């Protein structure tokens, strides 16, 4: 991938995340619900880290995670650090893998989502922060995992975000859906 | 990235590793700082939100309006039924209005007898809901009034009918309102007509629970729940809602405020509220509190 292309994808990444944060802040629904919508932002971040890690720079990732924490009234830095660490782990997985079929990608993303959830939950209960109900969080985790293929599908056909592999560029990048 | 380096080489450069560690440590540091010195970091958060979110209002307002418009359009189908329903309701309301007028006159006469003056400090600031917290885990909204309008921490906010929540977190032009449904919301209340004191605590459902009730047997569904103003936390006699019983026989409050469409709220001026400007002084007894001079906590 050329430097310019990588930069373009970084810019697209930044833009889409800003738009998603903006949409979540809209005061549309103040009714407390028994379910949580899937965390599309997390899907987006994971898809980017797994599919083209070069265009998700470290500092931008950390900054965007922290911004989410600040805007969404979560303990600042808690979700950010666990999501950041897991995203870096995803990047490494994506770098190291020779073949990266979609099934493996989805599995990695699911493990990542679960890890982020448990890291956040355990560390917040260890530091005596009142944690939200477990079942609500687990529902969100499940829906986020289910939403991941759709996010990838949109990114794949909408932006052409394919897995860039040096070693196996010829292999089929996505068998979505 | 140079074209000829492989991915593994690219990934494991020391600089990259260092950067990852630096960012992670920075984030952990922010979290620990938040845990230790909560008010300061929360003030910092309010400052950031205050500079960014009101500036986004030019984009937020039309998008919100568009979404609400489509929602309203969907409900046009039911408008005929709604119309008939409203007519019937209006008929009933007329008789109520008559009763209310009579009561008003009676009330006016009684007030005159008592020579009572309604407290003039109960004025309010009207405000618009700018943004919400963006997650179902915390029930807070952002209002477009702040320190500039004289709003202070702890002031109650009402919609047309009942209490919506309390202000917690002030920026210059924005402030955060913790709704009664939030898990960290605790409101001291009195249940009328039995006059029992209790605590209404949010639990992320639309009907907060009633806790610490002395004698649950005298409380019936349908009783009115109003703020008690105990411990100087809130103004007394603000309507919260009615008592209901859920499936597990637990007492809850059906909120009088309309949470489905929260657009405008009134923030009541309350000049008595205790201000929270540091962590420790709240816990210490009053004699010790005055001894502590902590100049670096006054961050203005």
Describe this entry's structure for a reader.
The complex is a heterodimer of chains A (177) and B (300). Chain A is mainly α and 177 residues long. Chain A has one domain. Chain A has helices at residues 3-25, 40-51, 58-71, 78-96, 102-126, 134-159. The longest helix of chain A is centred in the last third of the chain and has 26 residues, at 134-159. Chain B is α+β, with helices and mostly antiparallel strands. Chain B has a domain at 126-268: Beta Barrel (Thrombin, subunit H). In chain B, strand 3 (156-158) and strand 4 form a beta hairpin. The longest helix of chain B is centred in the first third of the chain and has 36 residues, at 79-114. Chain B is globular and about 80 Å long. The relative contact order of chain B is 0.11. Classes of the chains: A mainly alpha (177), B alpha+beta (300).
- Secondary-structure content class of chain A: mainly alpha
| Major sheet size, sense and barrel closure of chain B | 6 strands, antiparallel, barrel
Whole-number average pLDDT of chain B? 80
CATH class category label of the domain at 126-268 in chain B: Mainly Beta
State the helicity of chain B in percent bands: 25-40%
Alpha-carbon distance between the two ends of chain A:
26 Å
Counted by DSSP, the helix tally of chain B is 6
Structural class assignment of chain B: alpha+beta
Q: Enumerate the spans of chain B where pLDDT stays under 50 for 5 or more consecutive residues.
A: 1-6, 292-300
Radius of gyration of chain B: 25 Å
Find the biggest chain interface.
Answer: A-B, 54 and 59 residues
Q: Going by CATH, what is the homologous superfamily of the domain at 126-268 in chain B?
A: Rod shape-determining protein MreC, domain 1
The tally of helices of chain A reads: 6
Quick synopsis:
The complex is a heterodimer of chains A (177) and B (300). Chain A has 6 helices and no strands.
């Amino acid at each position: 991938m050329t430097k310019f292309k990588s930069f373009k994808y970084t810019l697209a990444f930044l833009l889409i995340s800003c738009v998603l944060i903006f949409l979540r802040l809209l005061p549309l629904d103040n009714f407390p619900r028994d379910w949580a919508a899937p965390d599309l932002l997390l899907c987006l971040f994971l898809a980017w880290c797994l599919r083209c890690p070069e265009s998700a720079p470290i500092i931008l990732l950390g900054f965007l995670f922290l911004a989410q924490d600040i805007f969404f009234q979560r303990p600042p830095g808690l979700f950010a650090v666990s999501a950041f660490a897991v995203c870096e782990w995803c990047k490494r997985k994506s770098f190291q893998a020779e073949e990266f079929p979609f099934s493996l990608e989805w599995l990695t993303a699911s493990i990542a989502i679960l890890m982020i959830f448990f890291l956040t939950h355990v560390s917040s209960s260890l530091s005596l922060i009142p944690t939200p109900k477990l079942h609500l969080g687990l529902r969100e985790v499940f829906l986020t995992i289910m939403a991941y293929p759709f996010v990838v599908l949109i990114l794949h056909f909408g932006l052409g975000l394919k897995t860039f592999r040096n070693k196996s560029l010829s292999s089929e990048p996505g068998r979505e859906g | 990235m140079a074209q000829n380096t492989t991915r593994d080489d690219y990934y494991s450069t020391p600089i990259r590793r260092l950067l990852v560690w630096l960012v992670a440590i920075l984030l952990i540091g922010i979290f620990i700082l938040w845990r230790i010195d909560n008010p300061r970091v929360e003030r910092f958060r309010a400052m950031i939100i205050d500079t960014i979110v009101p500036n986004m209002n030019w984009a937020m307002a039309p998008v919100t309006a568009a979404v609400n418009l489509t929602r309203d359009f969907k409900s046009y189908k039911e408008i005929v039924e709604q119309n008939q329903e409203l007519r019937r309701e209006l008929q009933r309301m007329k008789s109520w209005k008559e009763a209310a007028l009579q009561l008003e006159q009676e009330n006016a006469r009684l007030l005159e007898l008592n020579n009572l003056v309604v407290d003039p400090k109960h004025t309010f600031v009207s405000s618009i809901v700018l943004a919400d917290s963006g997650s179902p885990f915390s029930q807070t909204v952002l209002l477009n009034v702040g320190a500039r309008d004289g709003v202070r921490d702890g002031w109650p906010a009402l919609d047309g009918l009942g209490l919506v929540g309390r202000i917690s977190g002030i920026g210059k032009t924005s402030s955060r309102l913790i709704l009664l449904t939030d898990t960290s919301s605790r409101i001291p209340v009195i249940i009328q007509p039995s006059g029992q004191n209790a605590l209404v605590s949010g639990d992320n459902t639309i009907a907060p629970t009633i806790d610490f009730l002395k004698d649950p047997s005298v409380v019936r569904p349908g009783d009115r729940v109003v703020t008690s103003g105990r411990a100087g936390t809130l103004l007394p006699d603000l309507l919260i809602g009615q008592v209901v019983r859920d499936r597990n026989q637990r007492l809850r409050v059906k909120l009088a405020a309309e949470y489905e469409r929260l657009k405008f709220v009134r923030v009541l001026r309350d000049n008595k509220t205790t201000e929270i400007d540091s962590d420790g002084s709240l816990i210490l007894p009053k004699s010790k509190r005055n001894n502590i001079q902590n100049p670096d906590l006054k961050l203005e």
